[in-house]
Structure formats: structure tokens, C-alpha cells
Amino acid sequence: MDNSNEDLEPAPRWQEADNNLCGVLRGRRTPAVAEHSVGAGWKSRSSSWDAYEVETRWCSVELDPWEGPDTLLNGVIDPDKLDALATLLSRFGLSFELELYDESGGLLREIAG
Questions:
Q1: Residue 100 is assigned to a structural domain of this protein
Q2: In this structure, how many other beta carbons lie within 10 angstroms of the beta carbon of residue 72?
Q3: Contact 58, 78 (CB under 8 A)
Q4: Per-residue pLDDT band at 9 (split at 50, 70, 90)
Q5: How many other CB atoms are there within 10 angstroms of residue 7's CB atom?
Q6: Nearest Cα to Cα of residue 8 among 82, 61, 63, 87
Q7: Which residues contact 50 (CB under 8 A, 6 or more apart)?
């Protein structure tokens, strides 16, 4: 489920940023989450046997399988877009928990859906 669209490359400021987002997506296997992301216009590529990178201009995350049908998520997001990501995940029918961190690793915000 790789697609390559250079228009979806993360903005340069997010390409160089440290991870500031982590979370768990409940009830969907990693390939299904990547497929939903592509359907929403995101770029996706396989990053290992069973993991994917998905990205758009404001977010770039790694999706890794975890306990049963759950998926771990970690990467970089424009902090102003956390609610947009939560809305997208809800639209996919996912239950999720997300954590946003600042540059020094301090927890800024938690969001669940």
C-alpha cells in the first residue's frame, strides 16, 4: 500500500523535528490504518515487514502493530493539527489515545476518542 506523492511530503519544519506525538489506535490492524490514511489523501510506505509510515504536510507517523488488533503510533505533528488528527481517526471508526509533547519532552496534551 505504498503510494508516492511528493505534494504530501511533510513541510520542512516537521521533517527536522523530534517526535512529539505518540499514541495507540485500538481495534484496527496496522495495514488497515495505513489504508484508511491513503484513502484520506495521505502518503504511505512500508517501513518494515509489518509497519508503515504515513504522512501529510502537517504530520508524519510510524504505525506499528501492537497487542492483537491495536496499532502504536509515533512521530511528528504540527501541534495545531492534533484535533484534526483526532477527527480523522474518529472518522475511521477508531478508538484512540494520543499524547502531544513539547520540545523538551513535557506532556502538553492528551486526547482520547
A1: yes
A2: 17
A3: yes
A4: low
A5: 8
A6: 61
A7: 30, 31, 64, 65
Longest dimension (CA), the chain: 35
Residue 83 lies in a domain: yes
The 3-state DSSP composition of the chain as helix, strand, coil percent (nearest 5) reads 25, 40, 35
Q: Could you count the other beta carbons within 10 Å of the beta carbon of residue 47?
A: 14
Is 45 domain-assigned?
yes
What confidence tens digit (pLDDT) does each residue in 39-96 have?
889 999 988 888 999 999 899 999 998 888 889 999 999 999 999 999 999 988 889 9
What is the residue range of 38's domain?
A: 6-112
> Quick check: pTM over 0.85?
no
